[in-house]
Amino acid sequence: MNKMMLGVIDATTYMEPIHELAAHRSIAAVPFAGRYRLIDFVLSNMVNSGIESVAIFPKYQYRSLMDHLGSGKNWDLNRKRDGLFFFPSPDLHIPSPHLGAFQHFEQHIDYFLRSKQKYALICNSYTICNIDYQLVLQRHIANQCDITEVCHQGRSLEMFILETSLLLDLIANRVQTGYNSIVNVVRDPSHQLNICHYEHHGYVAVIDSVESYFRHSLELLHPEIWKQLFVKSRPIYTKVKDEPPTQYTASAVVKNSMIANGCVIEGHVENCIVFRGVKIGKGAVVKNSVIMQKTQIGERCELDHVIIDKDAKVENDVKIAGTERRPFVVRKGTVQGALMNR
C-alpha cells in the first residue's frame, strides 16, 4: 500500500490577506518556524507516508519555490522513476477559483495518464500539520469512499484522496458536469458520489493571513505544540544549509525564543522566532516578533509584535511596535531608518 498514492500539491492559491508576505513569492514558499517553508510540511507528510511521486502545480511568483525545492533531494525525491515534478500554469491571467483546479491539471494531463498509482492525494500548500496519509487511505478503502476529505474540528483542511481514474474522469468531463475543481465536487449536494470525512486530531495551523502567520509562528514557542508538529518518527524535511552555530555575546539575553543557526545575538530577545543568519545589535530589545533570514537589526532598537521579512535592515535607534492582531510587517529587502519610526 505504501506506493499506491500520487501526491498533488496545489500551489496556485493567492490570498490578499497575506499579500505582505507573498508579494514576491508564492504562499507555498513563505518561511516558517525558523528554517522551513510552508510547503515543507505537506511535502514531508507525503514522503513520510510513502509517496514517491509528487507533482507541484504553482502559478504566481514561483522562482523562490523552485529554488527551495531544487531536484527534491532533501525529500528523497530525486529519483530515476517518479520523484518531484513541477508544473507551472501557462494561464497566469485566469484565476483558479478553488483548490485542485481541473483546468490546470488538464494542461499537464500526461502526468496523470502515465502515473501507475491507483490513488491521488490532492492538498493545498499552506496547511501546517503532521499527518499520516496512509491512515487516511486505509479508511478511504475500508469505507469504499469515492472521495475522502480530511478535516480538523469540522473544518476542511483541503486534503482529498480519490482514485486516479476518478480524477481523470472529473477532469475530462468538467465542461459537462460544471465541476471546475475537486472542491466543487465535494461541495455539490446533488452528486451521486460517496464523500467521506477523516478527522485529524493533531495540531493544525492554516496560514491564510498575516495575522494567522504571526499567531501560529509564536505558538511554536509552546513545547506541547512543538512536540505535536515535529515528531521524531515523522520528521519535517527542508533545504539543507550549512552554517556555523549562533554566536551569543556577553551582552546577549535570550528568553523563550527559537534561534536558528548562523546568527549573532548581542541584544535582548524574548518570545521570538529568529531565522538563520540574523544579526541583533547591542542594546536592541526584540520581543514577540518573527525575524526572517539575514535580517540586520541595529543597536538600541526596540521591536515588539513585528514581522521582518528576509534581507531587511533596521538601523540604529529604531522603534517599531505592532499588536497581536496587527503585527507590523517590514517587507523583504527594505530598510527601516530612525526617521521612519512609528
Percentage of residues assigned to helices: 10-25%
Question: Please, how many domains?
Answer: 2
Number of helices: 11
Structural class: alpha/beta
- Classified by CATH, the class of the largest domain is Alpha Beta
Q: What is the CA–CA distance across the termini?
A: 57 Å
CATH topology of the largest domain: Spore Coat Polysaccharide Biosynthesis Protein SpsA, Chain A
User: How does the major sheet shape up?
Assistant: 7 strands, mixed
CATH architecture of the largest domain: Alpha-Beta Complex
Question: Low-confidence segments, ≥5 residues, pLDDT <50?
Answer: none
**What's the arrangement of strands in the largest beta sheet?**
5-4-1-6-9-8-10
Give the overall pLDDT as a whole number. 94
How large is the radius of gyration? 21 Å
- Overall outline: elongated
User: What proportion strand?
Assistant: 25-35%
The number of strands is 27
CATH superfamily of the largest domain: Spore Coat Polysaccharide Biosynthesis Protein SpsA, Chain A
